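Field log, afternoon session.

UNIT: design team B
ACTIVITY: writing a sequence onto a fixed backbone
BACKBONE:
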């Protein structure tokens, strides 16, 4: 009996959690139940990897990943259709479209990363604090957010362009500020609901401090909402950057960007459809992957949804 008990205890780690083998089995079970989530994870990992590699080192990207220089002008090969040498064809300047789409992941990745980690995450924390503590802190945070949302974001962006010039920095600042207040409003509502649960009342009755309740009970229980909203913010930021670049008020002309490639393909898109098909597919696939991954993680992490997946 003692030997059996020791063996049973030895199969668990020091924290009393399930053994690692069962964790991998659980991950495999989730993967089988969510094949779309696995595909979305692959898309998002590939997108983030491309963006991160270019951000860290252009040389590694140019020599090891991109088959051609995405900025290299090659007039004799302009407007060629898809081929073995150019899988996505070439554009008006003779740029390899496949290389430009790979390079365009950098701009979208940077904008999404800034929007989530410099905008949404601080805003989400402010929203949780606002909903949990309420009183004057809630008033200050929410009135600040309402003052920002009272002005159309596009007009504010044009004002920033006038003051700072057109480019990646201007887009990043406006998107990050917008994400702060957007995240604040969403998470405030979730925190208001969460603080009414019985386990919060029980923690207070046992003498837990407000700070402990906030970090040990409230934030972990709203984490699924944070993950889903963060993926949506990332996706919206990718769309926003592409739309602004498509309109000609985003990043500088000539920069590898999916929005710029779409804009440049409009003139000859009727006769050379690959000019608009591939940049449009890049935007659609990445945005869809981000949204599907967020939904899948919510279904896995939210205790209320566990066991409901088919």
């Amino acid at each position: 009996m003692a030997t059996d008990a020791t063996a049973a205890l030895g199969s668990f780690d020091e924290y009393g959690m399930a053994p690692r083998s069962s964790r991998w089995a659980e991950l495999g079970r989730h993967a089988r139940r969510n094949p779309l989530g696995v595909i979305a994870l692959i898309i998002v990992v590939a997108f983030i990897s491309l963006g991160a590699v270019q951000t860290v080192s252009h040389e590694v990207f140019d020599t090891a990943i991109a088959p051609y220089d995405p900025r290299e002008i090659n007039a004799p090969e302009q407007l060629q259709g898809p081929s073995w040498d150019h899988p996505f064809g070439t554009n008006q300047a003779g740029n390899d479209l496949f290389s430009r789409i790979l390079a365009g992941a950098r701009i979208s990745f940077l904008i999404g990363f800034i929007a989530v980690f410099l905008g949404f995450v601080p805003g989400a924390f402010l929203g949780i604090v606002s909903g949990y503590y309420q009183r004057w802190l809630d008033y200050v945070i929410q009135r600040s957010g309402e003052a920002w949302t009272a002005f159309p974001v596009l007009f504010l962006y044009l004002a920033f362009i006038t003051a700072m010039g057109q480019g990646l920095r201007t887009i990043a600042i406006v998107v990050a500020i917008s994400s702060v207040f957007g995240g604040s409003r969403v998470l405030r509502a979730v925190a208001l609901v969460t603080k009414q649960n019985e386990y919060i009342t029980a923690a207070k009755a046992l003498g837990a401090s407000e700070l402990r309740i906030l970090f040990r009970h409230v934030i972990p229980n709203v984490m699924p909402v944070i993950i889903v909203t963060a993926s949506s913010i990332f996706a919206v930021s990718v769309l926003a950057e592409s739309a602004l670049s498509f309109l000609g008020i985003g990043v500088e002309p000539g920069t590898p960007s999916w929005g710029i490639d779409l804009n440049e393909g409009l003139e000859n898109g009727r006769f050379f459809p690959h000019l608009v098909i591939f940049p449009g597919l890049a935007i659609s696939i990445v945005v869809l992957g981000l949204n599907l991954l967020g939904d899948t993680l919510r279904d896995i992490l939210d205790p209320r949804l566990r066991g409901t997946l088919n």
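LOG NOTE: Confidence is low (pLDDT under 50) at residues 1-17.
NEXT ACTIVITY: expression trials, pending approval
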